[in-house]
Specification:
It contains 11 helices and 9 strands. With about 250 residues, the chain is α/β, with parallel strands linked by helices. The strands form 2 sheets. Strands 1-2-3-4-6-9 form a 6-stranded mixed beta sheet, with helices on both faces. Strands 5-7-8 form a 3-stranded mixed beta sheet. It has one domain (about 5-185): 2-enoyl-CoA Hydratase, Chain A, domain 1 (Alpha-Beta Complex), CATH 3.90.226.10. Helix 1 (about 30-40) packs parallel to helix 3. About 45% of the residues lie in helices and about 15% in strands.
Amino acid sequence: MTSHLIVTDEDATRVITLRRPEKKNALTQDMYLAMSEAINSAQDNAAIRCIVITGGSGVFTAGNDLEDFLKDGTANSDKPRASNAIKFLHALANNAKPIIAAVDGIAIGVGTTMLFHCDYVLASTSATFSTPFIHLGLVPEGASSLLVPRTMGHQRAFAMLVMGRTVSAEEAREAGFVNAVVATGHTETEARKVAREICALPAEAVALSRKLLKPAPEEIIQRINQESALFGERMRSDEAVNAFKRFFARKKA
């Protein structure tokens, strides 16, 4: 388990907490693997009824740690996408337990797309959501090209996924992928309340109802893999290579 992730079981809820504040909870391959293990190991544990994913107060996640992502993702030309990131996305697709997300602050890239795999999303008034794949010459990931239009409609999905526009907490609630907007610093507390509410419901009925509401895992995984192949091709494109060069040049400036 990486030190940048804390997993605790409280009553019937597993809480996955991102803990890398110095990097705005940017996700490394070790963090992806640890999150996958936390989700997968909950599946056959009848004592775990809900999962909460939180970044703590002030930030959810800045998305991929780009230096770590590029090092791992381009190490083998046959596997351009980082394998642990794909393991995490597959874990989300196959997960059968209700997932609640507590988003306080920024949610960038996969920090936003993972929310469309969640069942209940709480956002603070300061939360913002962005998927700037296009600015790096890339394409959507995490089955977002499938799930986001189903939730928000094509036009809103196009603005976010293709144009790279940032969405505020209230706009996200209006678009349908955030359930409630709460005061900054209170998302995790409210998420735990929602988890207790769900855990008090009949377990089998919840599981069956949730399954009826969501696309089949096979459909989601097929789209994840399709996006991943295109994403890998784009990583080697001139547009993406030049975009990453500009990004790191700005960081050094």
